[in-house]
Each structure stands twice: as C-alpha cells, then as structure tokens.
C-alpha cells in the first residue's frame, strides 16, 4: 500500500469552487471532509490490495483516494458529469504514476481509466446514473464501498446486489435511520421492506455512527455505516420478484394481519389464510414478525394455490 494525501476541508472547498460545484439536495450530495472517517470506512470494509471495488457517488474523491491508498482498484460511478470529469484529475494529483485514457464502457457511457506503470486499471470513472448501470467495465467487483446519496441509498444498494452477484461484501454510509432499517431483525420496530429485501442478499449490521460535522454541507441527520456480507439466497419455489411482491403487500399497511394484507394477492382472506398455514406462518401475525425465509415460503404457498388457466399447474403471484 502507498500513503496517499487524502482530501481535507480546504482542498475540498477549493475543488468545488474551481469546478463551480455547489452540493445539491437533489443529488443527495454531502462530501466527507474528515480523513479519519474515510480510513474508518476503508478499514471496516476490509479492503485489501488488489480488490476490485465499486464506489457509487464518489463526489470530489475523498473516499476514492482512501480506497486507492488501501491498494484497491476502484470503479467509480458518478451521475454528475462535472464531478466525473474532475475526479481523474484529482486522483492523478494525489496518486503519482497514473496515466489517463478515455474509453467506452459496456453500456456505451463515457469512461475514463487511470492506469499505473504496470498497465493495471487503478481508477475507472463511469458517468452514469447508478440505477441505470447493468454492467461495469473490467474485472467484476468484489466489494461495494460508498458514501451513498441519502435520497437513493436503498434502491442503489438493492440494485447493485441484484445485478452484480460478484459482490461479496458491502460497506456503505447512509442516513442513520436507513442503517437501522437495513440491519433490523424481525420483530423490531424498524423492521420493514428494506430489512427483508436486504436480507435476501446479505446479512447486515450497523457498525458505527458518523457525526454530522464530518460532512460539507452539514446534513440535518446523523449517518451510520452498514456492513453487509453476501449470503446464499433463500430457498424458494418462486422468483425473487414474486417474494418481493409478497413483502411489499405485507408492509403496505403494516398494522394489518397477514391474512388481510395478503388477501388481494391470494384472491381472498380465506385463501391467504390457507397459504399462510401451508407456509407454517400464523395468519394473524404481522409482516414485521416474518423473516425473509418465511416470506419465501409464503410466496411459494400462494403461487401453489393459484392454478394457471387451463392446465392445472401452479401459477405466479401477481406482481
């Protein structure tokens, strides 16, 4: 690993001013000013030299430099074209020996690659909305490490876990309330749709709280770090989409008993009750009491109870 001078408050503000960048709430931009926080994120992500790491929303490059310092090869996905153009210049000034080339990504989006003297791709910058990214250039990433924009943190996280099964671990900084939801166990007050859908892909835990003062501009809420480690998906006789449809229905009115909440999917409350019984779940329970494996069983039981027209074979749960 090489020592890299990480960005400090003065340089971050100078970079933003030079580029004419003003952080916007629309893009959920809050830049990390504190090098200690950056290194904490990298440590908790267990980043090793040679790891291929995808970073969503690199902004001015605070975390990007921390990942490069740890020896990772970074694929940075940035929606803001001004910041995407600025990032390679910033990294080249802080990490000597890198040369830039402009290429095209798999999806046809503009890409800039910084390579070291051995021809290794140390930084790849993709200018794109993360929710539109379906392929990444180069070797598949093993980790997602990011200070995720608050306004899209859960959709981005779930999208990347779905589309990139090479991701073995995730360490993201998100709004503290979102962190609690992602890591919540069944039965807890914060357990809900994000908790169940995240658990489909990985085990999650909140690892640290991050104070507001390390950001510019200072947000109105606290932040937290969430660590996620990939796990085998639950055993299910139906698709992930079918299971997630049941999850959405179960929490649409979270105070409803499952018998009532799932009646529209099953066709009636009685049919929902039979399916729940077949899945080994109390029909009078609420969604907050059911883990992801239980939802997989419920979705399978609902599908088995709905016959496909004309051939008597099990149908699919309506999306």
Automatic annotation (TrEMBL):
Coiled coil: none annotated. It catalyses: adenosine(1518)/adenosine(1519) in 16S rRNA + 4 S-adenosyl-L-methionine = N(6)-dimethyladenosine(1518)/N(6)-dimethyladenosine(1519) in 16S rRNA + 4 S-adenosyl-L-homocysteine + 4 H(+). Its EC number is 2.1.1.182. S-adenosyl-L-methionine binds at residues 30, 32, 57, 78, 129, 147. It comes from the Bacteria. Its main location: cytoplasm. Residues 37-232 form the Ribosomal RNA adenine methylase transferase N-terminal domain. Keywords: Cytoplasm, Methyltransferase, RNA-binding, rRNA processing, S-adenosyl-L-methionine, Transferase. It is found in: Cytoplasm. The lineage of its organism: Bacteria, Bacillati, Actinomycetota, Actinomycetes, Micrococcales. InterPro entries: KsgA/Erm, rRNA_Ade_diMease-like_C, rRNA_Ade_Mease_Trfase_CS, rRNA_Ade_methylase_Trfase_N, rRNA_adenine_dimethylase, SAM-dependent_MTases_sf. Pfam families: RrnaAD. This is Ribosomal RNA small subunit methyltransferase A. Belongs to the class I-like SAM-binding methyltransferase superfamily. rRNA adenine N(6)-methyltransferase family. RsmA subfamily. Specifically dimethylates two adjacent adenosines (A1518 and A1519) in the loop of a conserved hairpin near the 3'-end of 16S rRNA in the 30S particle. May play a critical role in biogenesis of 30S subunits. SMART domains: rADc (SM00650). One of its GO terms (molecular function) is 16S rRNA (adenine(1518)-N(6)/adenine(1519)-N(6))-dimethyltransferase activity.
